[in-house]
Amino acid sequence: MDESRRSFLKETGWAALGLGCGFPLLNTACSSSSAQGETPSQTGAQRQWAMVVDIQKCMDEEVRNACIAACHRAHNVPHIPDPEDDVKWIWSEEYQDVFPDQAHEHTALAIRHAPILILCNHCTNPPCVRVCPTQATWKRDEDGIVMMDMHRCIGCRYCIAACPYGSRSFNWRDPRDFIERDADGEYYSDFPTRTKGVVEKCNFCAERLREGLQPACVEAVNQVDGGAGALVFGDLGEPGSEVSRILADRFTICRRVELGTGPNVYYIV
Amino acid sequence: MLQNAFTGGRRYWMLLGFLALLILSGVVAYGQQLTEGLHITGMNRDVTWGLYISQFTFLVGVAASAVMVVLPYYLHNYKAFGKMVILGEFLAVSAVVMCMLFVFVDMGQPTRVMNVVLHPTPNSVMFWDFMVLFGYLLLNLIIGTVTFDAERKGASPQPWVKPLIYLSIPWAISIHTVTAFLYSGLEARPFWMTAIMGPRFLASAFASGPSLLILLALVVRRFTKFDPGKEPIQKLATIVVYAMTINVFFVGVELFTSLYSDMPGHIHHFQYLFTGLHGYAALTPWMWTGEVLTVFALVLLYIPKIRRQEKYLAVLCVAVIAAIWIEKGLAMVITGFIPSPLGKITEYSPTLPEIGITVGIYALGFFILSLLYRIVVSVRERMQVL
Predict the structure, then answer these.
(1) pLDDT per residue over A64-77, tens digit each?
(2) Considering only residues 21 to 80 of chain A, which have any Cβ-Cβ distance to chain B shorter than 8 Å?
(3) What predicted TM-score, i.e. pTM, was given to this entire model?
(4) A130 inside 8 A of chain B by CB
(5) b/e map of B296-325 (b: 16 or more CB within 10 Å)?
(6) Which residue ranges form the domains of chain A, and what is each CATH number?
(7) What secondary structure letter does DSSP report for B356?
């Protein structure tokens, strides 16, 4: 009895000390990075970037093309004519293929074949990270982005086999010949181009978030007539963020929830 | 001991020359792949692993099967395998070398291969596969050379190899189990995500590996003065019969689960294999060939009168190897990608350079095997004379 009481006291003491030291640190960490987000975090909850895709608003082809073009231009994503070798960060696929567990025998044809934007889900429990033999892909602690180090990747493509969403692309050939350039022959973006033989995918615009900007795709849809809010980006760890509010109020779905990967891209039906 | 590898008749040198030519053409094809990228292979956005990783998987089985001679000889003191053990161990050595090369040529950035060691990642099965394969290579090299050297000198091997030999037994099981875990732990690929994959891999390995060993023993007897003996060959044949039977049973178990449950995600892959899916059926003729070979080999292997005649046994061994190669070296990896997680069916067929590289690696494996077997044979020939 005494023993357990003493150890209980001891543990509480340590816990109190931990809280005392930890909370101010956590708060500073959150407030110093709040410039990146939409609102400063008050709860100190783990930041997790997330995206909400409004399927209805994305039915507009112009909206979809705008965000695909903006993303691929911002990241020097090549467009390779041979579809078997192509590299994609954000693109659209049919509803029945994106949500195979939602489409049923009598799903209306228009819905079955409706184009749905897809990208890396930045899973909470990412299988690609679990299998990577070199930690060339990892889940970033501070904001939950599944990152890629193109300089460490050995090109084994185990992550592609492990991803249940087909979100990853391999550079089967040198991508640089297929990247869009301006009139002077320069790339549109200074985002590092990749070499052949490495895997790449959407990075939730980590480089733009660092500058306090929204992802390129989100910015692009907001500039299209009727496209505002087609893609919404924000912090799920922050209850007041727009994404948190949408998920609390609207009927939303995720891809392949039953796999337990915890996707962080949500869809308003 | 090593100098024996460079003594031999005209046929030996012709064999080495022929293999060297194949290796060379593989090297040339690999040079093209290095400069142009993996797009020169048949692999694509949807089917991201192909012939290379399939051969790797098949050959891990061949490597692991050495345990089928090591275990009876060292654990059960089955003396008849005395002359066979070294052939099994050296076959494992060359098979592991081929495995490693197949993984290497599959990599997009092969110069970064050391990243696997520089950034060890225990949560990645691929990391463990690297480790166990490399360990298995070392074990077989050390055990093989030390025990054979002792035998050559007419002494008993140094006592410190004994624990290594015992270690090599579970280690052999581990290399194929870990290779199965590469696939069976992926929730993205229902075709692979089956607990029977590890046991299936082992059963098929213990059928195809000993079959290959029987053929090699027959070749050695035919072309040299060294005879590995009739009894060990028949014992290996028994192992093949049991292993192949268990393998067929495991395949049946897997088919039942998928077909009876009738879940689209599972059944589509089997449909693709056996009947074709939405008109895509590149593997269907292969699969049925494999099934016919399996039934043919198994039924005839059951009949002792046929099994005991080495000329028939040789044919049946070829059939077993071919059937398991189709199953593991062709269908198993590719079908995991068809259909893709996005419901796409993209078929895969290897390109000429890809086949050239594959043949080149097999040639290199057999080149190494020829050198190692040459050493064994010339030492044994001399001992038989004495």
Answers:
(1) 999 999 999 999 99
(2) none
(3) 0.91
(4) yes
(5) ebbebbeeeeebeebeebbebbbbbbbbbb
(6) 3-29+39-268 (3.30.70.20)
(7) H
